Amino acid sequence: MQKALVLMNVRLKEVISQINDASGMRIIRAILSGERNVEKLASLCDSRILKTKKELVLKSLKGHYSESGLFSLKQGINCFDFYQQQIANCDKKLEEVLSKMNPTENRPKYPKNNKPRKAIRHHKPNIENMGQHLLEIFKGKDATVLPGITDYSWMQLLSEIGVDLEKWKTEKHFTSWLGLAPKQHNSGKRNRNYKSKGTPKAGLIFKQAAVGLLNSKHIALGAFGRKIRAKKGGLVAIKAVARKLAELYWKLFVKGLDYVENGIKKYQEKMLANKKRSVSRMAKELGLEVVLVNS
């Protein structure tokens, strides 16, 4: 669709974030129905877009419509609609599978969590009460308490790992299976070549969560990752944060939530102590005195 619009010099993609959002789709369908008036087409945009970008939207819609371009646009929107229906069918099947994993007659009575679930920014499945389904499957333990884990990524991990995490004896066994454990193949001056067998999909899911955590300013794992990134680069940092997150995931379902929360708290306290020690050392080198102020 975007390519067809550009060929007709309709530069809508430069003005709105995604042409497949509600505003863009309304405009495209109107164009295919025969509308050419730029004012009427622009009026189909969301009011928030018109408030700040109305002139740009009008300018972007002054194209040169051609028969070949409109044909390509029609082909594109037909493909888009087909795949949207396929995605809807997948969501329906996923909901059926979650219900089968936790049938109503055997469903334990866990208190319903009325707190809002974490927002899913992209590709949110259209599954009713997805979070509640997962809570009941995992007997009330909620993986979304961990940083970077949403109901969607949790469901993906369920499909790759399953419910029983005790089949891995320790968190180290678990991270090794995920392909997130550091490799030790060097001894002194001797460097050995190592061919990776690849990372299981579950390991990639943890890595995707780690990418977002590296940019977080108020999460301990983000600070841990940025420290490693400064020394060894982004790829090493992503893998390290993913390993820490995977360890927390294993501990949550094997050791319990209290164990995980205490572990995170101790880690944050350790980071704070390291910062204080670093500041004191720098002050001593500069001949200054550090005065602690209770806030």
Portion in beta strands: under 5%
What is the spatial order of strands in the main beta sheet?
1-2
> Structural class from helices and strands?
mainly alpha
Number of strands: 2
Rg estimate, integer Å: 26 Å
Distance between the termini: 56 Å
As a percent range, the share of helical residues equals 55-70%
Question: What is the 3D form?
Answer: extended
Chain-averaged pLDDT: 84
Order of helices and strands: HHHHHHHHEEHHHH
Low-pLDDT segments, ≥5 res: none
Q: Compute the number of helices.
A: 12
The description of the largest β-sheet is: 2 strands, antiparallel
Into how many domains do the coordinates divide?
Answer: 2
What does this structure look like?
It is a single chain. The protein is mainly alpha-helical and 295 residues long. The protein folds into two domains: 2-90, no CATH class; 102-112 and 125-181 and 199-285, no CATH class. 59% of the residues lie in helices and 1% in strands. The protein is built from twelve helices and two strands. It has a two-stranded antiparallel sheet. Strand 1 and strand 2 form a beta hairpin. Helix 2 (22-32) packs across helix 5 (67-101) and helix 9 (201-214) crosses helix 10. The longest helix has 35 residues, at 67-101. The N and C termini lie far apart (56 Å). The mean pLDDT is 84.
Defining key terms:
295 residues; mainly alpha; 2 domains; two-stranded antiparallel sheet; 12 helices; 2 strands; 59% helix; extended
Strand and helix layout:
Layout: H1 2-7, H2 22-32, H3 38-42, H4 47-60, H5 67-101, H6 130-137, H7 151-161, H8 171-178, E1 186-187, E2 190-191, H9 201-214, H10 220-232, H11 234-254, H12 257-285
Antiparallel strand pairs: 1-2
